[in-house]
Amino acid sequence: MSKEEKEKEQTSSEGKNGEDQQVILNELDENVKRYEEIFGKDSDLSVRYLQSDHCKMGILFIDSLVEKEILDQHVIRVLNNQLENTVNFDKFILSTNKIKELTKHEEVLEHLLQGFSIIFMDGQTTAFAAETSGGDRRPVTESSVETVVRGPREAFNESIMTNIGLIRRRVHTPKLQVYKKSIGKESKTSVAVLFIDGIAKEKVVKEVISRIDKINIDGILDSLYIEEIIEDPKRYSPFPTIFNSERPDRIAAGLLEGRIAIVVDGTPVALMVPATIGLFLTSNEDYYQRYDISSFMKILRGFTFVLSIILPGLYVALLTYHQEMIPTPLIIAITGQREGVPFGTAIEVALMEITFEILREAGIRLPKTIGAAISIVGGLVLGQAAVDAGLVAQGTVIVVALTAISSFTTPSYNIAITARLLRFVLLFLSSFLGAFGLIFGLLLILVHLNSIRSFGVPYLTPIVPFHKDDWRDLFIRVSWRDMKQRPEEISNENQNRMLKTRKNRPINRRN
């Protein structure tokens, strides 16, 4: 045999072996042996054999991913009854939610890892996948991060189907579209993109799906993986451009405005795009209280957000470079407090800010039962001890404490972290250039904010570009009677949220 013939024969044999590895074998024992070798004999892969005079079958399932009651009642018992009462077992009927016919080896692996039970029949090259996924899951509970006084108490859990159901219970329309995809070579994590057809912009929907389809990674363990991969890569920004929430009512409200939600299996936090800065400074409760109360709270929240960024820098600039701007009684009191303090104002504030950040991080990492107590007591004890030791002035402790309290009013945690970072930048500029450095830093932040886009939508909308109607839900919230339009930059051509009605005429009463 020549060398060329040997190579052709070897190539053809390799091709046949490759084809055999891709299809389901017609022998039941060979199929079971194949998957036991893949998962390991001591793994949680289980096999249940069923047999009659005319048929032999095996049911493969992963013990930790299936609901035992569904498997026993709706698969094994049903198949046993049909085996006993049927002579020609060519077809069978199951009472599970889903059943799929499989012809490839990769399909069997994919469905096994999703919690399906795979039914093999001896002598057949097809298998059937029965929906039996379940197991222990965290129930739907109240959100521990986004709390409200009035409003729904439900929060997402780690099941993607439960989370999609929580959204569908609030948006009862067939226009709510769901695009599902498995991402991760090893994790095979289910990711769903939700949008309302006719309200969300088609261009933005295609862009979101396109970015998700391009993800090529070994595993997705949290929605942050998706967030960092699909956000705009052209420009770095400390400001988040993708909103996240663990409340289904918040996500449903965004969908009704024309936004797009991304739900990831295994995490209770859903993503939402496009995101603007107003979305991060809005609380769920703004829509569950009267509009006048909500307007006051929104103004207060916006003021404290700005205060949490500029207050330390402003304090340093005034005491170091612009004492003439401080009233005389106040400057005398502050100067008296600072007598004997060995550090400059900037170093003093920076040390206190870093100490508070350490305490805050320690409070988060410690167990819940002692974390809050440690952070509060630690802050009080360290602050008082530092003042008594003459390391810091009382005014510095007050400024740092007021800054910290102001940062706690920010409803979105990720933009609150951004404020913490910018605080140190403005503190650094103020320590060298005074008020000019502070104003210069604020101008840089505004220019940067104006350059950010979230899936093509300007970050500062409706401020820049200016949309007068959208200001009704920006710094204040007007009555629902006056919010008849969806956000102009976000929604599609269908911008009517509420139909215009005639004003009710007063009723004439006769005596």
From TrEMBL:
It comes from the Bacteria. The keyword Cell membrane does not apply. Its main location: membrane. Residues 499-511 have a biased composition (Basic residues). It is found in: Cell membrane; Membrane. Belongs to the GerABKA family. It comes from Lysinibacillus telephonicus. Keywords: Membrane, Transmembrane, Transmembrane helix. The chain crosses the membrane at residues 299-321, 366-385, 391-409, 421-447. Pfam families: GerA. This is Spore germination protein. Residues 1-22, 490-511 are annotated as: Disordered. It is a multi-pass membrane protein. PANTHER family: LEUCINE ZIPPER PROTEIN 4, SPORE GERMINATION PROTEIN. GO terms for cellular component: plasma membrane. Residues 1-19 have a biased composition (Basic and acidic residues). One of its GO terms (biological process) is spore germination.
